[in-house]
Protein 1
Amino acid sequence: MAEIPMLQVKDLWVEVEGKEVLKGVNLTIPVGETHVLFGRNGSGKTSLLMTIMGFPQYRVRHGKILFKGEDITELPPYERAKKGIGIMFQRPPSIKGVKLKEMLELCAKQNGYRIRELAQEFGFERFLEREVNLGFSGGELKKSELLQLLAQDPDLALIDEPESGVDMENIEVIGRMIRKLLQKDIHRPRQKSGLIITHTGFILKYVPADRGYVMLDGKIYCQGNPQEIFEGIQKHGYEECLKCLRRMETPLNL
Amino acid sequence: MSEKNGNPVEPLKVEEFVPAKAVEPPKSVDELTEEERARLKEVGIDLEAEDKLGLFIQADCGVVSCQCAPEGLELLPITEALKKYDWLREQYLWKAVPAEKDEFTKITAEDLDDGYFVRVFPGEKVIYPLQTCLYIRTDRVAQRVHNIVIVEEGAELHIITGCTTHPHVTSGLHIGVSEFYVKKDAKFTYTMIHEWGENIHVRPRTGIWVEERGVVISNYISLDKVGSIQAFPTCRLKGRGAVGQFNSIIAAPEKAHLDLGSRVILEAPETRAEIISRTVCYGGEVIARGHLVGKAPEIKAHLECQGLMLTDKGYILAIPELEAHVANVDMSHEAAVGKIAREEIEYLMARGLNEEEATSLVVRGFLNVRIEGLPPELQEKIDQAIEESRKGM
């Protein structure tokens, strides 16, 4: 019997404030695999992640989200978090008066992760006493987010643009954090799955992925080897994806 | 312009209350029941604690505890101190707060119940906090208190005052006149925690004088139910380089009428002042005032007034005022009233907190003004109190 996938998204249609942002998305991520979603800004990548996490303004008009085989389409975000889904926000808000340490302790409530050790490992210890995300730089925000995810230790990590606004020095650390989160440094079989959004693709240099997709206008059109897709996009840009689709006569209502 | 602007809290009829002197006070803390001891503990007054530096408790009109461990510090009931020291009456009594200020100061001047007198001798640094407690024990009592604190040159003192009522008291009036004198190079921190009751009316009248390079830090916390509080401590920075810092952390549950704020008058060059207030409104009425007066050059003063409305009931009226009388001043204020950001709640929900837990954490963070010199138990108590008052939403 085949193993139940970590995540299955079935014909998902979603609108935000009356505007259709996802138009029939299908996606399956098996246990232990990391998938990468490419696409321009505004193509619907973040909307897909936010819908998988369950934020109420992303209204599911049609379709289903199954997590470990269970239909979670109607669950609120905190129930999904408790079941093992975690998200790294691209632009997280700051929480005044709450220390990062407290936040990490809340995240780690169920699995008792050793907060200080974890922060030390990624050179982030001096931020533990700071207020969550308040005045953090681009790279610091990403580290704060990933540290929270590491404390939370989800089975499925949704990672939104991990390299945006990060300088070259920090991107290596961020890569390491994601590798740890997704168990990239242990031998298979891995238990953790990931879905990474990127429009530049640079993170692939640091985090190997099993499968790639291209998202255009709220729909996934292309899937395959992530490295190959990334190279294609680097060489020809997303324009080529559109041309490719036309060549393949796939109907795309632009 | 709001019709609420400047509206004082409804006038009180003093004659409707029983003078505290008409009631026989307990003779010592031994007469306080377990229930009362627990109540005092809630405002940080732990009768069992061994490591106290000093403890003053006044129940209704009577002083039930007035003990003090260290040398370098004098603690007396004010009525005794006034008998002992003529200079106290001549130089300090009713100087920082005028006796004729209003009806409440007037009746306190006419017939005082008691209060505390604290004096730290020059150069003595008393690091552990002195605890004082003003306690209404009998129903419908009007308590008239007058406190004087003198921190002499180069000395340091921390006081934590817990004010509360007997758990079964349903109404009462507390008048508390406080005059604080902070001398040259002295430092004084004063943390006041109010935990009254639904029909308790509170009229503190506070005046503070700070001399050259003296520092005063005042923290005011009121998170529980209360009838009305009207307080507007006035601090005069009289000596060059004096510093005044005023923090208030306030929650306004339904039925509470709060008119609170601080005024700092910067009278000498190079003085600095900061007023920070955080208010959470759960349906009560709050006026959050702040008034900075710049009267000397090269002063720096800032006022920060933030409010969080959690329901559609009640109101927050923020009145930040800056008043400059000379050219070379640096004065600023920021005031903001709003609701909890949806974005923050959702962020926390994605980390596994349900909506209630997320709201509670954001409110706690909002009220989390860093309070210097607060013992951890007290900080814990504040966190608990915030948790408690949140339930009244």
Protein 2
Amino acid sequence: MTAVIADNLPAFVIIVPLFAGVVLPVFARRQRLVEGLVVLAEAAGLAGVGFLAYIVFTHRGTDWVYQMGGWPAPWGIELTVNSLAVFFLFAVMAVSLPIALFTMGNLKDEVGSNKRTARFYTLFLLLVGSLAGMALANDLFNTYVLVEVATLSCCGLVSSRGTPRAAEAAFTYLVLATLASSLVVIGIGFIYVTTGHLNMGFASQGLAQAWQDRPHVVWLAISFVLVGFGLKSALFPLHVWLPDAHSSAPSPASAVLSGLAVKGYMICLLKFLYVVFGPALMKEFSVDRILVLAGMAAIICGAVMALPQDDLKRRLAFSTVSQVGYIYLGFGLMDENGLAGALFYLASHAAIKSTLFLSAGAMIASAGKKKISEMAGIGRKMPLTAAAFTAASLGLIGIPMFSGFIGKWYLIAGSLDTGDFLPTVIIIAGSVLCAAYLFPVIRAMWFETPQKAKQESTVQQECKTAVQHAAEHMPAGPGVPREVRVKDPGAAQKLALILLTAVIFVLGVVPGPFIELARSAAAELLMLR
Amino acid sequence: MKTLLEKLIVNYPYFFAMVLFSIGVMTVLTRSNLFKKLLGINIMGSAGYILFIAAGNIRGGTDPILHQSDPGTVYVNPLPSALMLTGIVVSVSVTAFALSLIIRLYKEYGTTDARRIARMRNEVTKSDSSDRG
């Protein structure tokens, strides 16, 4: 039994979340069981990824190519377990487990009704399974199918609250994401037409020849794929759908969408560009420069657009646009340090943005206020949540000891290696802007006193005291306004926030093994080895 | 050396796929009616199907069933058709989901026009903030 699992582990890592997601609605009435199953599936996934990482570390230099159903490569479908896949799988599982923990017990308040929670978990697990698949798949069409599964689950998650605002955001997202999928599938079609292969390795060999014979078709393929995945992962001029979609989703969904889903499409694009087209073709078509320019524009414009947002979740969503820019900038540098930095930054941003969205969600749910200007003094009432938010903000800005610093350090090293100093300046300017849009939130949370009490006129206060007086003497009924106590969320939520903050600290203080894994993934992609 | 026109005539399925795709993209991006946007998505999908299936077609080829008596027969490549079956499934689920969202929006706003929905939503948010202020 264990041998069967160990031999087919790459397939199990994908199948377990997908299967659990499909089975869950059967138990929809038993809330505890559903939550337990979700956490169990996530934990099993994490354990599986841990074992895969062990295998990759012990067999350094050789990828584990798993053949689905035992069919060899040009006919069968392959899953490749290499450093890149393991790195991204680790990020997915280590971030989605705390998010699943966070949803235990309080998901009903987020999505509206008990009936919707099972649906939410189904979509969540389908998304996690398809992200795991994107990391491992070595087949163009499988990647497309997994991307579609992820896209539909994302749209479902966005609309899971059921408000008309969410439905509108989900429809816009669905239209643009499907447009992107069509672009991707036609790009894959061009690759298949010119090479006759859907396996990434064989397609890559075929493209080297096809580029000599039919350069225009290859050019079309690369541009369709670039725009398609760029639209899906909110690369700067194509980010229009993101703020609405991510801010109108329930908070755990925002965390998984901003933290993980966007990264999945980026990993797909990375594999298409580096593994299928190859670094030489990328240089030939200046894709690297396009990525660097779009990344720099994203860093600055995303941060500038985040500044005037008063809605906390919208500000965080615009911040995602900016942070996506850093990762694309690193992808475009085509340098070992830069690429390793981009991958590390991807994992670090996954943990940081999930923490930010989850703690913001807890504060919004507890205080009932969405605006930053109304959050004054909330840090004293919810110290742990606010502390997690603060730690994650410092990480996003790139203060040493937090994970964002290491990522930015390697990105700057990479941009200096290429001899172009403009990206370096933009990275540092982006950090300053990031501080400019996050520090006001922290200041409001910890150092400002609530203004409402001062503004209230004496008449209103008198009314209030009268109401309170009446409430004390009357039995509490539905008509009596009850003061909601603002406090930290429950134990599972606290544990989730502590786990995520611990991930940010661990990545920032002992980045050694992770940066090592990212570097070996970068070396694989750049074919230095 | 073949002229461009000859190339187009020989490869007409690809040409039509691209024309269909452009029509689809134009519909999605320029129409404000949600149903028309959805139709545009489906037209784009059809372009993808045509591209793949045309790539699998071999002129004069038969259905891909192995005849042991005549091993030299030319077959149509069955793989793209199989792939597009998956593509159609994806497209159907996208359509179903989008229709459910449109119903939700129509129940709320009484229209399926994206611009009018955006205007009504902005008015609601404005009145919300003025109430609070």
Protein 3
Amino acid sequence: MDFTLFDAEEQAIRQARLLAEKLASAAPECSAEFEALVDSFKRSYREQRRLVRVSDRLQAQVGAANQELERRRQEAETALERLREAQEMIVQAEKLASLGALVAGVAHEINTPVGIAVSCASHLSDATAELKGKVEAGALGRADFNRYLATAADTTALILSNAGRAAELINSFKQIAVDRASAERRRFPLRSTIQETLTSLQPKLRPGHHTVEVTCPADLEVDGYPGAVSQILTNLVINSLTHAFAEGQAGTMSIAASRPDPDTVQLVYRDDGRGIPPDHLTQIFEPFFTTRRGQGGSGLGLHIVHNLVAGPLKGTITVESLAGSGTTFTVTFPRRAPDA
Amino acid sequence: MDSLNIAATGRTPDVHFDFASGVLRMRGESYPDDVATFFGPIFSALRAYLAEPDKTPIRFDMELVYFNSSSAKALMNIFQMLETVAEGGRDVAIDWYYEPDDDSMMELGEDFSEDLKAVAFTMKARPAHKTSPG
């Protein structure tokens, strides 16, 4: 293909050469000056060609650099996205793990009344077999029969009360477990959700003789996510139990629910532990922030609290703490959760 | 004469020369790897078109948003060819489109227009089209 970018310039130079020949015979005294002019045009033309080449090359380099930059930016963004996904997965896993802990707590609580009922039933069964043997042998005395009656009365009363207690526990846990697992929205009385949550925490509270005081109006009904509320309280209590109290110290925690205005609920959670150092206070809600790494601390407990408050509850959480005088978390959220 | 259509690539613009109606358009970005390969066919077609006795008015829509130096030189050559036929009495208009905030493209247009006397050269500030084939 016959194409040159500088066709016009080449042509001008050819014409100049022809003109130079004419000039050599017509006006020889002008030849030298004319040649000088043509030379300067040629230099200028070569310069122009060089500049175009240099400029194109620079453009190509800038273009390549920009492409590389864009590629790296995308790589970084992909990496960040993966990291976020991984973080989200870990948070989900932690939520599941806490559901597992809840189930373990439930099992532990129910174990006691069921155990008592089983041993009472077993005792009654033994006594009945003994009675039956005596009847068959025709050796039943009045005293034997009275003793059996007393045993039957005692054991059945214990079986009844303990089986009733187990049924009661199962009922309250059932609701809590369903709420946690399903994240479903419903109207619920706040006080019973708080109390059921605390019952599920008894296995953790009892050994250290910790107590939790609850203040909540009986008629305070919330339209929202009971599972989230329960999880928030559980994580706050466990956070206190993990960090706030010295070995052997029986802690006192309190949960005070109120309605600062008809559409708003405020939960104030307080412990009387050692408090959170000021330089940690700004970080406690960050994922993976923990002072117990390697000792079972995941650094996710309060992050999940924060997520649940900001997410399903559409509320806010603040923390106040003074070294030595405990920590207060204040959760404020609409009484009727806004539609998602 | 058949129109000339070249689809845009990452480094070359969309070319649509509708010779029958006299509307010629280049749109997109121009920094070809090999300037002769890209502009060679454009020049051949344009040279053949301008050599025809046809006097249909020509409108050239310059809608490049970016070009490198050799493309600028090629563009200047195209404009000179158009200037020559305009001097010969044919109606030729060049519309130079640039994005309103692209000062250097505007200045380049003004610079190009200084070499053109017979061609009606118009600056048009307009948000750029997305480059697309066809």
Protein 4
Amino acid sequence: MKKTGIVFFPAFDWSLGESHPEREERLLYTQEQIFEEGIIDLPQVKQYSPGVANLFDVMLTQAVFPTPHRHKLDAHLIAVGSSMILSKALMNKEISNGFAMVRPPGHHSGATVWGNRGFCTLNNEAILVNNLRSQYGIKKVAIIDTDVHHGDGTQDVFYHDPNVLCISIHQDGRTLFPGTGFTDEQGGPNAWKSTVNIPLLPGVGDEGFLYALENWILPRVSEFKPDIIINSAGQDNHFTDPLASMNCTARGYGKITDMIKPNLAVLEGGYSIQGALPYINMAIFLALAGEDYSGVIEPHKPTRSEIGGETFRTFLAGLKQQHDNLRPNWTLRQEPYLPAGEWVYLEKSVFYDTDWFKENRREYIRKCDHCGGTVLMITQNLMTFEKAALVRIPFQACDTCEQAGYDLAEHFKKAEKTLLLQNQLRNQVHLWSQGEEVSLFES
Amino acid sequence: MSYKLGIDVGGTFTDAVLINNNVVHNKGKIPTDKDNLLETIVNAMDLLDISKQKIEQITISTTLVTNAILQNRLPEVNLLLFPGSGMKLSSLPWPVNYEVLEGELDFRGREVNPPNQQEWKQLVERLKSSLNPQIAISGKFSHRNNIYEEQLASYLQKELPKADIALGSQLGQTNFYRRSLTTYLNLASQVQFLEFASQLKSAIDTRKCTAPIRVLKADGGVLPLSKIRPVESIYSGPAASVLGALAQSSSEDSYVVVDIGGTTTDIGLVLSGSPLISAQGAKIGSFLTNVRSLAVRSVPVGGDSVVLMENNKLKLANYRLGPAFCIGGYNPTPTDALRYLNLTDYGSHARAEESLASLLPESKRQPQDIRELAEEVVRIMVDRIGQAIEELQQEWQDEPAYKVWEVLHHHEDLEFYIQLSGGGASGIANALADRMNARTVLTDFSEVSNAIGAAMAKPTFSWTLNLDTYLGRYRIEETGEQGKWEGSKKPHREVEQFLKDLAYRQAETMGIEGSSLQKDQFDYFPLVESYNTVGQIIRGGMHVPPGVSGRIVK
């Protein structure tokens, strides 16, 4: 029988503040609903207990600076670890799909992490995906982010990775946090077109969403031929969400899930904790379990005006054309410490809205025809002025890129106070602080 | 001098003990008459000659309800549901018929759609024809608000005065599906149970005994005969095994209980002196219930399981055909294998050899061949038990956790030994110790361990509170009590005192000492609307854990 796994971790003793949207109460009503309905008793359903991720898995994917020990990570490590419980069950063929209904969320957390932003500190899906690649030989992964906010963190982690397709469909950044996710963001020099952003006007509902899925997202996914599909299942496109302005219903989310057919869905945002979450979580889960979700009906009716029909189709066609016509324009840069090859230079500023500070980041990506290319990031926390460097040797790196990574690490071990070497090729992580290696396993 | 009497009705045998001041004064064992459990119990009492002693309490562990459910001997109940919207009812397997009514509540018990009175009228028309209709009413979220169930019940009671009506909200744990089925089973088994109770009472009266009668529950606790819900008496046998071990071991130990019966072996887990309780309700036949039970496994293998040779492959059947060959039966069994290997000493060695040899071709009946066969039988038996132990330990490891604190302090590492009881226990002790890489300990009163467990069991109960201060409503899951909250919107100590008072008051009526009540963790969820805290949802509990009233002295 086709088994569906669920791990439910509502973090009932954790919040970002008493009246913060990300608070203890957030999954309380979801728990009431799903356990009252008896979904755990469905013969094809298996409930898993939560797990705790280790810092090695985290640091292979995300550079938590200056060291992970400086952050309060407990709840985040459980959200990641619990999601990974399902990915492991998937790999062991215990389940054919699953839903990690976990808090806190993660999709705003990027390649370098100095704090919490958009309620996220660690990126649940990104860490899980790289664990699947390093431990289970998974090669190609598609992540479809259906949260109303741009999945900027996930995009950032995989921006230079041609083997991970990141698609985010969201309310456009002119009207909503984090203010990014426009069509010009399509991936780095070795991964161009492996990032797809579909920014929508406020007011789009089920019809528009499903249309975009059918006519843009799904064709792109099938062209990519992923081994695994992950859905970042944010639920704030709902017509009752207090932070966003979209018009989807719970049954719409069920249909979205039916169409994406993700191997794993991971809960992201969604802050209409009574009007939406109990129903959307049900609908998504029932869709995964192959059950009828047409009876999942919210008590309220939509009141926002909806953008659909011809207006929407014309809008989307224009957006798609803009997306398809874009060509990148890379800036190359030479630095004395950069090993041989062409290095593309990018700059980025990241705002940590929870803790209210900025990070500035410079990136150098080695252009490569053979692999994803070694990446160097030099980052600074503009509140503490601490600096750190990240060197990433990608999965399936070619010999030249691998060597370039070691050469950069040798240099920055001394040149920067903190250096993280993410050697995804060899499944190794090394963190140096002031020239000394820091163990990731001390408490 | 006063005595505790414990009786455990098993599938094959019924055990009885008389205990005085933690000393086993008398014990006995008789075959169970499946068709007349009452007589079996009365015979067991007479075996111990109870009229000669001053009995202070009688505890019965009986398969009455378990058998009635498993053998499908229950009267028909009309199950009326208010499922509202959500998952389709047909997504879950319903072993009984039901009727769907309009009316919907949400997860906080707020009304979404009202019931349809027209439907109720038609219902009465249809039910009128039956003399004494049995009606179970169960609504989704009725554990948060019983309004529709109560309204329909009072309407039906007025129109059909002879109807027996049960409400799902009275078994108020979360899970509409299980609550509905449990309500059904409880109502369906009520008539048989009440009849059994009254006959038992008069049988005991005629033996000039006035001791209170208590019934063992699946969670290892007891309640007075008059207070127990019939459905709670299912699976008391495995619970009795665990309690029997508890009464014969040190109070802080951690161990696996293995009780080898004629056809089944019951396995339970004790963690630092506390039996593990299953995170989910018991499953009986095709019914999933919300009956709280100890986490136990029943493996269909025992001392009398028939050994078969099929296509040159040795098999242990799931059934028994009388006793072992070595003690006068007709079929080879694990008991014969143990006897042949001199791991036990009851029964005839020659007959054990004869039975095992009969499984082998005539050309292969050398002592070495028979020895290998016997060892293989023991290995298969031990392996099945070992697998079940591992499953149970996994269930403990996999207990769900919903808080950061719980996950980070999930389970301490405990060192387990194996507490063995039942026929043949001594014979497999070494093999099981090797298989599990753990020490084994034999229970002293192995053959009546379950009856000891019943006699020594303490009452259990729990009161789980769900309070919504904004809506001004509280509910107690286990009793189904729902009432108005008139205290503060953001209470703290006040609510803990409220539950404590309520639990103490009700414990007294169930014969439970207040001092045995334990407070659970209280969780406070601030209710936020537009960034303002407008109230709280509070979950908390008081409970009396399963346990024994003393330790048996040899």
